[in-house]
Amino acid sequence: MSEPILPIRRVGIDTWRENVVFLHRDCPVVRAAGFQALAKVRVQANGKTLIGVLNVVDDDAICPPCELGLSEEAFRRLGAEPGRPARIEQAEPPPSIAALHRKIAGDRLEEHDLHAIVQDIAAARYSKIELAAFVVATNQFELDRDEVLHLTEAMIATGQRIDWQREIGAGPIVDKHCIGGIPGNRTSMLVVPIVAAHGMLCPKTSSRAITSPAGTADTMEVLAEVELPLDRMKDIARATHGCLAWGGTADLSPADDILISVERPLGIDSPGQMVASILSKKIAAGVTHLVLDLPVGPTAKVRSMSAAQRLKRLFEYVAARLRLELDAVITDGRQPIGRGIGPVLEARDVMQVLANDPQAPQDLRQKALRLAGRVIEFDPDVRGGDGYRIARDILDSGRALAKMNAIIDAQGRRAEPQQPGAIGFEVTAPADGTVIGVDNLRLARIARTSGAPQVRGAGVDLFVKLGETVRAGQPLYRVHAQFDADLEFARQLVGRGNGFTLGAPEQVPREFASAPGDVR
Amino acid sequence: MSEPILPIRRVGIDTWRENVVFLHRDCPVVRAAGFQALAKVRVQANGKTLIGVLNVVDDDAICPPCELGLSEEAFRRLGAEPGRPARIEQAEPPPSIAALHRKIAGDRLEEHDLHAIVQDIAAARYSKIELAAFVVATNQFELDRDEVLHLTEAMIATGQRIDWQREIGAGPIVDKHCIGGIPGNRTSMLVVPIVAAHGMLCPKTSSRAITSPAGTADTMEVLAEVELPLDRMKDIARATHGCLAWGGTADLSPADDILISVERPLGIDSPGQMVASILSKKIAAGVTHLVLDLPVGPTAKVRSMSAAQRLKRLFEYVAARLRLELDAVITDGRQPIGRGIGPVLEARDVMQVLANDPQAPQDLRQKALRLAGRVIEFDPDVRGGDGYRIARDILDSGRALAKMNAIIDAQGRRAEPQQPGAIGFEVTAPADGTVIGVDNLRLARIARTSGAPQVRGAGVDLFVKLGETVRAGQPLYRVHAQFDADLEFARQLVGRGNGFTLGAPEQVPREFASAPGDVR
């Protein structure tokens, strides 16, 4: 052999955003160049270059000795047809690896270092192992606030950025975002129609669930289409002032998506990474005014008031430098919000609140009004403190429901409403007592195990909340599922802990989130 | 479906010590349980349990929808036949992940934490991403010396341990080890026959090359069999007092091998990890007295005298607690040792030194005598300072060569001697000058690119060393290879930097390693 050129083969393995290159152990290129498993290789074809990680295979059915296999991600990125020739060679490490090593060694990184790292990450030049190294090396107290600022800027700079002012001649673009961790916390689907009905422009892009039982995009999808091209979003925003779309169709902060693919299995979500992730996505989406929901509670992401204040200040520092108007609100994160956990059940809660149904969960209504009020107070014509009342008037008058229906119709209404999963079981109180603990993490896990969010109707429906008194045998919640196996997994999980703690009324944990005098 | 049970399929992908489980995207289990890519799953079959990482595939040729694919590593660990039923379910994170998170957050870990982590690593319960997180979180100054001690103990405890005293009624078991990074530094193959000829027991286990162009096992394999079962090693040690075997057949410190699989692609080799890796392997191999070679130089692993002293103290602290007699020697790491870089070329250098060939590289001879002398001084009957002279007498008298031949015959002599690669090219001096720099990393890379260590005869043969004066056009070294493509890669690499720096005689860097009064 003289040239390391092989025909491309598409290998149908979903490597979750990692470029993997497959070569057979008997491939002359592997033999000759002494390639090792997990080595970095450079593949050139179709005028494009790709850096990937080598996996050595022994099975001709996956990749025969004289072909160059590409994982789905790598195949998509290279954009060359199967059978086309590609050149493969050993790759130098990506240019920013030296900066990564300095961060691992404890150095402070400069603006250009972080830009170089984020560019390499966005171009998929980092392996999973290198991504994990970056996530750990920038974890916790390892990034100072200027490093977080530069990381955020770099993440914005590597992707698309929507300019609503230019696109539709708009004024402020408002949004509301939660840092996550509280099941059932579906306030966006209430805040958007309320503030749009007030006349503010709120074309919201949301994520699908990553580790939670439902994201806003998953829940909205129960009612309407959410995979909307940017042009459709613009038309809808022009017509209704609101939109509740999935953000994945626009290429906003692509490095963030890649970092999340490692943060998620590691269970790491440190303050600096959280701030860079959220603010880069929001600024790239063209948001100019943001209300941020920071829930605090024993099983929330933020577990103490001092940690919440620190996180709030970091968000505020970075937002101010990037000229994003930010109002960060510390909220009650002691338990799930509303009753349903899972897309269909959460959509039901939202529609009950919009319809002013007497059955509607009051905690979800109150929290949505509070956050919508803070968004409305971005309006220079609204006096500080008047937002809550304005939001309540919009909701009570039915204008919020009308606006939501307009948005749903504009996005494309689902033909028939989806129902909660047909099979299930109830979890009952083992004794008389007062509910003194409802574990966010446990209930999210049970809802996910029951099939949410992939199975839209699966999840948990809560019957009682913190501070309520129950009798032995009284149902605490119902688990909904579609498949027997899911239900069996969920039952086993509930058997190891149902997420509820009973005790005496005086043991109910105090809400330490709300500031004195805060309008609720 | 009612039970998540599927027949096993063997998927021929070498995942380099990671258990990967493949399920088709249309598999009812994936659909129902909402498994996500990179989720942790538990597989049970054959009375065994395995934790792996899920890869979702779209290609029936890799894994059809109703089968459970296992990577080579996972298949081997589970030890069940293809077609046998296996149960798959979502896995809890391994128990020690909580301790890993505390380390990431900056906590000091206790003895039991490190034991739990190392046990989970050795049992292959950590994903590549989690291993990378551990390696980074314990990097640099992140481990204090007691954490290094406990990490070392835990790594010893999870594998086999050879007890030579019990096995063959031996006294002290001596060994010599280098921390690596210096090409051609093949002193073990000289130290072992010299100290064995002195009557000391030195049954050495060595590694194959990981990132270098040749390990001791690769080089010894040019002359003799090195893959020896433990019983053979015992017989050989009884008969000859020496042995130069590959350590991979014994299950010594298995967690170390797994950590190396991540440290290598990350290029991380921090002091704590190095100490735990080397000392765990040596103690597990039954070594009681160890001479440690710590080369210092501008392109060595250790680049300053102060860093070398710090590393030496850490080795000494941990060794003392584990009752290993340790003599750590800081040596000259400014350039490669000997002439050859690559298995065949290095074996040639070793045999020339043993044969007292006038062509033998004197630096290799001197360094081996110095280290052998330090080992010999572990003998209570030898006066301090006499070791070097005793070693020299053994070498000069031909007794070291006779011992080496006895060891080679006992292990199984190779039928015909291997030759250096038949094709190659010479690299010449671009101008007149004195050699003031020879880059260890660059020359190792050139030797690897030419095919070493997989291609035994490939590598670099140095003609001049530091401080020598050359004329323009004079050959500096020759690159040997077996395959055209390798040679072409090596030629390109040399074109980007040949590893030699020429200058004026006064620019030759001073050797800062040798202590005053040290016998050489």
UniProtKB/TrEMBL annotation, chains A, B:
Reactions catalysed according to its record: thymidine + phosphate = 2-deoxy-alpha-D-ribose 1-phosphate + thymine
Leader peptide range in chain numbering: none
Pfam families referenced in this protein's UniProt entry, alphabetically: Glycos_trans_3N, Glycos_transf_3
GO BP, sorted A to Z: pyrimidine nucleobase metabolic process; pyrimidine nucleoside metabolic process
Entry EC no(s): 2.4.2.4
Gene Ontology CC: cytosol
Top-level EC class as recorded in UniProt: transferase
SUPFAM superfamilies: Nucleoside phosphorylase/phosphoribosyltransferase catalytic domain (SSF52418), Nucleoside phosphorylase/phosphoribosyltransferase N-terminal domain (SSF47648), Pyrimidine nucleoside phosphorylase C-terminal domain (SSF54680)
One term of GO molecular function: 1,4-alpha-oligoglucan phosphorylase activity
Domain of life: Bacteria
Family annotation (Gene3D superfamilies): 1.20.970.50, Nucleoside phosphorylase/phosphoribosyltransferase catalytic domain (3.40.1030.10), Pyrimidine nucleoside phosphorylase-like, C-terminal domain (3.90.1170.30)
Domain Pyrimidine nucleoside phosphorylase C-terminal span(s) in chain numbering: 434-501
Assigned keywords, A-Z: Glycosyltransferase, Transferase
Coiled coil residues, start to end: none
Family: Belongs to the thymidine/pyrimidine-nucleoside phosphorylase family. Type 2 subfamily.
Classification via NCBIfam families: ARCH_P_rylase (TIGR02645), PRK04350.1 (NF003338)
Protein name as annotated: Putative thymidine phosphorylase
